[in-house]
Design goal:
This protein has about 425 residues and is α/β, with parallel strands linked by helices. About 45% of the residues lie in helices and about 10% in strands. It catalyses: a quinone + NADH + 5 H(+)(in) = a quinol + NAD(+) + 4 H(+)(out).
Length: about 425
């Protein structure tokens, strides 16, 4: 790799408007070297240790250390089989499109990453659980998988070794809850997508009751580069304690919406002003959701906060997927939160009562406020719901995630809510 591509390993092969590399071009660019090194020179335990030392944290939203997640999978001759590795490619978080970028533009990177990760966890079968709407990604991945089979990188006795891997691409039925790893596994088994009780965790009892690791697409794509260049190199790419680079996105009324690979810990201000180009003419910044729709708003005082898991948490939100949604001064914050809560109410799996009945009620109250029929007491009811639907009160984190934009909007934009009620109409609608 060149100096520039060494700084942006995940997107080094991505050039706008160019077709993704085929397997010959990918290998000419250094592809599948990590797979050869892993199988010929390293043990599964050595790969797990390298990932742990790199301080790679999950890029799907929770930020759980990847090496620690892998360490829970049973290893050795007595481990139950088959074992599974699943790439969570059901990217339905509003404002997030980073995994789509990777799958459509460099599909061999993900496939190589899944083979190496399967070898490291001694998985027998690997699945990509893919969002239904990602038709182009499905086409690119299927073609790349066929090429990999043809080169002996998938199937029986990979590179002449004793390691074999069965590989499948599964298209999702299209539900937001499938982003939750146990709901994803239930759906993959052909059942209604409902989260499972934890423990047991998937590493002990996952797909069809067997040991399973579920990782996000971006998380997995880091693994070949850690194997090629080492944990210390990878960790030093970052500006923070978390290792590596991160795909950050920005959407809303900025001059250049998009997605960029930058050092982990790049500040919000740098992403917004240098890469997204700042606000469009005629619009002022009011706030942002830093990691998709299920994160708390941050405002101008937070612009110099580094975008890493711990710093954003200390600022009162979550980094989530790193896909920022920008709120401008000509967009009604009540209407924006109403739109989000309608989405979360529709996407509730319906398993537990607080989520199934609470989210539609929250949306109903917000609708009344937006239409000028709200009462000041409604704000207290909304605040009560942010507590009743918070962490520990529901079966999974769907409803608590839905409460994050609401609770922070009531904190930072309360005057906008009160103005709707006093004036009995939405001020942004004349």
């Amino acid at each position: 790799m060149t100096g520039k591509s060494m700084a942006t390993p995940l997107t080094q092969n991505i050039i706008p408007d160019r077709e993704p590399l085929d397997i010959t071009q990918y290998q000419q660019a250094g592809g599948y070297q990590a797979l050869r090194k892993a199988i010929k020179e390293l043990t599964p335990e050595e790969i797990q240790q390298a990932v742990t030392d790199s301080k790679l944290r999950g890029r799907g939203g929770a930020g759980f250390p990847t090496g620690m997640k892998w360490s829970f999978i049973p290893m050795g001759d007595d481990a139950p089989h088959p074992k599974y590795l699943v790439a969570n490619a059901d990217e339905m978080e509003p404002g997030t499109f980073k995994d789509r970028l990777l799958m459509e533009n460099d599909p061999h990177q993900l496939i190589e990453a899944m083979i190496v990760s399967s070898y490291a966890t001694q998985a027998d079968v690997a699945y990509i659980f893919l969002r239904d709407e990602y038709k182009l990604a499905a086409h690119c991945l299927k073609q790349a998988a066929q090429e990999a089979h043809g080169q002996g990188f998938l199937g029986k006795h990979i590179l002449g070794s004793g390691f074999s891997l069965e590989f499948h691409i599964h298209t999702s039925a299209g539900r937001y809850i499938c982003g939750e790893e146990t709901a994803l596994l239930t759906s993959l088994e052909g059942k209604r997508a409902i989260p499972r009780q934890k423990p047991p965790y998937p590493q002990a009892s996952g797909l069809w009751g067997k040991p399973t690791v579920v990782n996000n697409v971006e998380t997995l794509c880091n693994v070949p580069h850690i194997i090629n260049y080492g944990a210390e190199w990878y960790h030093n790419l970052s500006h923070s304690e978390d290792g590596g680079t991160k795909l950050y996105g920005a959407s809303g009324r900025v001059k250049q919406p998009g997605c960029w690979e930058l050092p982990m810990g790049t500040t919000i201000r740098e992403i917004l002003e240098e890469y997204a180009g700042g606000m469009r003419a005629g619009y002022l910044f009011r706030g942002l959701l830093p990691g998709g729709a299920s994160t708390d708003f941050l405002v101008e005082e937070h612009l110099d906060v580094p975008m890493d898991f711990d710093s954003i948490m200390e600022a009162g939100s979550r980094m989530g997927t790193g896909g920022m949604i920008i709120l401008d001064d000509k967009t009604c914050p009540v209407g924006m939160v109403l739109n989000l809560e309608r989405f979360f109410a529709q996407e509730s799996c319906g398993w537990c009562t607080p989520c199934r009945d609470g989210l539609p009620w929250v949306a109903h109250i917000l609708q009344a406020i937006e239409e000028g029929r709200g009462q000041m007491e409604d704000l207290e009811i909304l605040e009560m719901h942010t507590q009743f639907l918070g962490p520990g009160k529901t079966f999974c984190m769907h409803a608590p995630g839905a409460m994050e934009p609401l609770q922070s909007a009531l904190k930072y934009f309360r005057e906008d809510f009160e103005r709707h009620i006093r004036e009995q109409h939405c001020p942004w609608r004349n």
